[in-house]
Amino acid sequence: MALPTVDGLELTLDHGGRVLRATIDRGDDNLMSMAMCETLIALLRRPPEGCEILHLQASGPSFCLGRDRGGTDIDVLRHQAATLVGLNRALADGQLVTVAEVAGDAAGFGVSLAALSDVSVAAPGARFWFPEIEAGLAPAVVLAWLPGLVGRQQAFRLTATGAKVDGAEAALLGLVTRVAGSVVSLGEEVASQIEALLAHPHRAHLEIRAFLAETAALDQASVDRLAVERLVLGSLRLAGRAIEN
Hints:
Elements: E1 11-16, E2 19-24, H1 34-45, E3 53-58, E4 62-64, H2 74-93, E5 97-102, E6 105-107, H3 109-115, E7 119-122, E8 127-129, H4 140-143, H5 146-150, H6 152-161, E9 165-166, H7 167-173, E10 178-179, H8 186-198, H9 202-215, H10 220-244
Parallel strand pairs: 2-3, 3-5, 4-6, 5-7, 6-8, 7-10
Antiparallel strand pairs: 1-2, 8-9
Helix pairs in contact: 1-2
């Protein structure tokens, strides 16, 4: 698959080897447009051949302060909401492992991009918040995934008050994987995370993610049964490779 080219698309794409780097470059706020979201969905669902990891980063002072809003037509609004949900799902179950480098603030849908990536590393000074409440809105698309990460009470607090949390609290809550030691070391720590992922089979990463998704809503007995079946299948596959070699 060739990298998409879209006139006016402020999303820089750089494919080098097994890593696809996508850089949000849309001014100080780095708001995501629907075209940018659709491009990321396409890349996650049908990545370039040989690509295993999407490295998502941003240019400018902010990581991403949300997405474009506007329109009163019900069909347009439905399309926008469906696109946002589609990107959330593609981050979770697409064909690329996702690594977010969060050097600046993230708000609204920008928090989604960081929190729903498989690995996210934030700068110490990065802040995270959901501003929809200031407009009197309940962020339903956010609430579809947020309680699963931080729990019901924290999800209510964050969305009901618009509270801003720093990188350290975001890591404690589960919105990001870890906080870099400094802004200077952020890039190095992200590169280290990517290197650690590339050292292991991509297929296994996708299987880990699929297992986590499939078992999230199951009772423990069902999880245990599925674990036995998946371990048996994995062991048989490894045994077959050993025989072939």
